[in-house]
User: Fold EF-hand domain-containing protein from Kineosporia mesophila.
Amino acid sequence: MTENVDYKATFDLIDVDHDGLISAAELKNLMVALGGEVSDEMAEHAVTVIDTDGDGLVSLPELADYLGENTPKS
Assistant:
């Protein structure tokens, strides 16, 4: 398991309602703010890929594990 502290700032940036979970809507809003074109379906799929407990939301440990596994090692 990846250390959550490494990804807390990123998580907090996405979790705009500060409920401790990232929804597909929050992820989409971030991508749009960064200039991306993201459909609801794309955002929902991204959450599904990261969401390991099947609740339809992304927690900090889930995001940290996903990013830790998908970040190139230097």
In short: The helical segments are 8-14, 24-33, 40-50, 60-69. Residues 4-69 form a domain with the Recoverin; domain 1 fold (CATH 1.10.238.10). The two ends are 18 Å apart (CA to CA).
